Amino acid sequence: MMHGYKQISVAAMALFLMSCVTINIYFPAAAAEQAADRIIEDVWGPDGKRSEQPASSEPQSMIETDRPVFVRMLEWVVSPAEAQADLNVNSPAISAIQSRMRSRHDQLRPHYDSGAVGLTANGLVTVRDAGSIPLAQRNAVNSLVADENKDRNALYAEIARANGRPEWQSDIQETFARRWISNAASGWWYQQGGNWQQK
Hints:
Number of domains: 2
Largest sheet: 2 strands, antiparallel
Strand order of the largest sheet: 1-2
């Protein structure tokens, strides 16, 4: 009888150790949305931010009971904080990018307002209606858009780098793409499903 308990104990310990080794660091989607919203408010200012909050997820108690018992037991030993990483968006490089974007926004804002420049579905910006830009300003606006896209791409890459997770770059970009649109001011244009829509 004692021999059977030892086998079960050894098997349980082996399973536990294998589980610990195979814990993945998942992309922290909720933390990424919060970080994106903070950065966007810093760049655009509070006037470009929507009052609506993203749809809340299920209550925590429901989420807890839906997980298998062994997962909950494992989390008792290895806290969920270890499996679900926070997102670091505080680095000198990220601050420098934000600063450039914040300065540029004053020049881009009138073109968002007029509909000349719109938000793309992939987290960048583009000239949507060149005809609404006076001919003398078109080169300058094209330059602003190119610089903005360069900084946005650098921002996504730098956040991934600052977190030691370069593989998160596309997830970060997708998160920002949604949040730029969500936080856009009324009247601004954005792409959705390949079509332009106005907020």
